[in-house]
Amino acid sequence: MKKKIKEITSVFSQDNPKIKKQIDRVKEKGHQRMTILVIPHGYDSSFHFQISVFTILFFLALTVGLLSLAIFGIVKSSNTRSEINNLSKIYGTYFDSYISNASKLEEMQEEYSRLNENMLELFTLIDGNDDELLKFPPEDDIRTTAHDSLQKEELEDKELDVGRKYLNEIYELRFLKQRMDENKRLVEANYQYLFQRSSILSRTPMYNPMYSYNLTSPFGMRKSPTTGYWEYHDGLDMANATGTPIFAAGPGRVARVTYANTGYGHHVIIQHEYGFSTLYGHCSRIFVRVGQEVRAGEMIAEVGATGNVTGPHLHYEVIISEEGKTDPEEYMQSGVF
To answer: Secondary structure of the chain: what % helix, strand, coil (to 5)?
Structure first.
């Protein structure tokens, strides 16, 4: 094998007489000079100049190269112009939409900033745990996380040309989304509080037991209409004609339906959740029974003059298990049917 390689090398070596003879012949022809005679029109004398074959070949090669570059440039320019025209059409079609969406993004950012401030204020008003706020990462860290995630997506996006990146609006939108995700716990904390508060309020006796009435005796100290002595009045006397409907002030279960010769006469006690109870006294008729579940606003009795009274009215009380009897007007003022 080595012997064959040496034989081939020796054949093509410049030391080979045949190869050397061919090279010398090419050099000789290349250095041959050609005389070019230029004869101008008129009476001017002619002139001539000499040029070698190598020089002629060089200029021919240079001319062909320049022509090739020119043709390539024209084709490339045509393709680029066509692409620019297509992009201009697309850009012109979606330009208004782009401007509109960019404006909406700014509005979203402003709205979310205001919303977040309101959520923080609400969290403070409900005596939220300040340690929870310390768990939220700073906005600079959120922006960095959003930026890094988008850069990773850019590298994995096969349709995105090398060196190009997403629009700035996409980065801002991702940052906004990241902020919302991080502050979701704040929203959940506020929602949980408001949901519990709403649940409590919906089960609390906060409605008027009658549509209309004349308040003849408020809650607290008063002069007794029957004895004339000062006494502590533990409810409201709400006067109206006998037979006026009485409604449950909140949802609950009927705990007592009874009659007393002195005191409340025919009366009903409804037990509500969260330690509340309501009493409806001096009724003429009662339409519920012990153990019955009633809804807020459900008719349970009618106004009467039973028991220790001077005229037809409803004696209404609100009792809290841990505090005792409280002023019903504080709850009645919160809502009506």
So the answer is: 45, 25, 30
Q: Is the pTM of this model over 0.70?
A: no
Specify the amino acid at residue 135.
K
> CA-CA distance, 287 to 266, in Å (whole number)?
11
Partner residues linked to 220 by β-bridges: 233
Query: What phi, psi does 111 have (nearest 5°)?
Result: -65, -40
- State both tokens at 170: 């996409």
β-bridge pairing 293-294 and 276-286: unpaired
Which stretches does DSSP call E strand in the chain? Answer: 33-38, 47-52, 214-217, 220-223, 230-233, 236-239, 245-247, 252-260, 265-271, 276-286, 293-294, 299-303, 313-320, 324-326
Q: How far is the C-alpha of 271 from the C-alpha of 249, rounded, in Å?
A: 11
CA distance 280 to 303: 9
Q: What is the mean pLDDT of residues 10-30?
A: 61
Contacts of 253 (CB under 8 A, 6+ apart): 270, 271, 291, 292, 293, 294
Average pLDDT, stretch 37-63? 69
